Amino acid sequence: MILFTTLLLAHLIGDFMLQPNRWVVHKEVNKITSSYLYLHTLIHFGLVMLLLWDLNLWRWAVLIAVSHYLIDLGKLYANPYFKNKAIPFFIDQLFHIAVLYSCAYYSNFMEHTLSLIKEIDWALVTAVVFVGFPSSIVMAKLLGGMSDKIELDHKSLPNAGKYIGIIERLFVLTFIILGRWEAIGLLITAKSVFRFNDLKESNSRKLTEYILIGTLLSFGLAIITGLLYMWTR
């Protein structure tokens, strides 16, 4: 675990702290001919060697650096095919972490991976998944008849309400698991403060009622999910 953590730390420093945005832009424009691509690769090699502090592990540093170069290069050429640029970013990071994991546990890769799978709390995974997009769909069905009667005179970010709801339900679920019920009250208060200005400007009773019902429904789904998870433990 210490080896994997060390390699992950080297990756985080190299990819996010020692890579200026102008390097990223230069790589996206020039791709394989970008000098910053090779400098970025050398930085990762140096960081791995520095944090491992063992010259006998230079082969692992070379393997990680070369794989990092190939993964980054693949991402540079795949980027234009994705409308949502977050997708290639996360795929890129997933491949990097997979390489680090393979290097850290190469001697017992299958055994360690199987042990991790056996330790997964599937009830928790189910709870987390449910308070995400499934809950958003459930709420959309329940509030569908009401939303048609609401007139909005201001613009909003696309799907902002859906993602805010998902995040708040994840927070509520986390607080229930940790036994911090008072934090749920603070979360409701914070949301009410942010919503107050919108409700004040709109001066619409329908909008106020719609937001209140949606908020209570969102929190209610998260609370019920959290209680069911705690009951199954």
From TrEMBL:
Protein's recorded name: DUF3307 domain-containing protein
Domain of life: Bacteria
Keywords: Membrane, Transmembrane, Transmembrane helix
Coiled coil spans: none
Transmembrane domains' residue ranges: 34-53, 60-78, 90-110, 122-143, 163-189, 210-231
InterPro entries found in the cross-reference section: Phage_phiKZ_Orf197
Lineage: Bacteria, Pseudomonadati, Bacteroidota, Flavobacteriia, Flavobacteriales
